[in-house]
Design goal:
Oligomer: homodimer
Distance between the termini of chain A: 61 Å
Largest interface: A-B, 23 and 22 residues
Helix content of chain A: 40-55%
Number of helices of chain A: 8
Largest sheet of chain A: 3 strands, antiparallel
Strand content of chain A: 5-15%
Order of helices and strands of chain A: HHHEEHHHHHE
């Protein structure tokens, strides 16, 4: 199927992704715009990953304060001052900061420094919950599953965004999606959450 | 000299300090309202200190954000929700947060945990700067003076407030003054400062 300039433009208008990538996605999806959108979203994610070598030196410090009782400070980085002024970028910062306020993640990702004592304790609890008499291989699988749940609970990027009921994206996926859309590396650099009296 | 109710009321209006304390200060100052004000200010300071045993369980989380590039999050505690809503209390929080944004203190006070390596290095520098041939007693005095300067540089409560040109109060004195005025313990519980790219 021939990919016309109009099809490319339509996809570009719908996704904000650059021309060349739209054209490639449409070719791959054999001209089906909906399929191409899904492909682009997947590419958006891998595109975000492929920018690991890029420096994210620009960005913003975002603060969210709920009623002077709970507040979050967040450093969200990107590559250029241009994106640092982008409205969607600011909206993402707001979404993440509000998410942190309510979901209280402990760290950004599994790569973050997590107190080894907490991890050890969690593994012990997981092990103690496995029914007796299971083969060792199954035991390890169950513990792995439980530890995955544990990490999803404490790592910001693995947590499901609260506001979105349909998409059920994680914060990490939202970051990668916008990263793909704006074709810039986006990084949650650090965050701090205060709650009165804690 | 007789202390009239009107004199007490005048002093109270001027300072916001409670009746009984105004009366006592006027007696001590022999009716001189300006002297009484100074006495009250001194008392305000000691009053703040004397509330050490009180619990400062209420308060606010204050956030200050300058242009999405520098931001400060501050927990300022007081004893009651009543004071937590007080305008002067909020103004103090704002003053402190802005001060932190520009002055970059490392810690709240000398009681805070300060990296012992930094202190040791600073002491070594101070010692190396003392001219040779001084008696040991003098050397220690000079080092003490230099270390005091160092602590003033890194401890929030010892730093001079930037905005005030006349009074030249430290942040700690400002906290104590308002504490005395509102007759409630006020405590800078914690703060975090973010600067983009740091």
């Amino acid at each position: 199927m021939e990919i016309t300039a109009k099809m490319v433009k339509n996809l570009r208008d719908a996704t904000g992704v650059q021309m060349m990538l739209c054209k490639e996605a449409l070719k791959e999806a054999d001209g089906d715009i909906e399929k191409a959108k899904i492909l682009l979203r997947k590419k958006g994610i891998s595109q975000g990953d492929n920018r690991e070598h890029k420096d994210a030196k620009s960005g913003i410090i975002y603060t969210y304060n709920h009623d002077n009782r709970v507040a979050v400070m967040l450093e969200l980085r990107c590559e250029t001052d241009f994106v640092a002024k982008n409205e969607e970028f600011h909206n993402l910062a707001k979404t993440i900061a509000m998410h942190i306020a309510w979901s209280k993640p402990m760290v950004i990702s599994r790569d973050s420094v997590i107190d080894p004592q907490i991890v050890a304790e969690e593994e012990e609890i997981a092990r103690s919950q496995v029914p007796e008499g299971k083969p060792e291989q199954i035991v390890e699988k169950i513990i792995e599953g439980k530890m995955n749940k544990f990490y999803e609970g404490i790592c910001l990027l693995e947590q499901k965004e609260l506001q979105v009921s349909e998409g059920k994206m994680t914060i990490g996926e939202m970051v990668k999606e916008l990263s793909g859309k704006l074709t810039e590396k986006i990084v949650v650099k650090k965050f701090t959450r205060y709650e009165l009296g804690e």
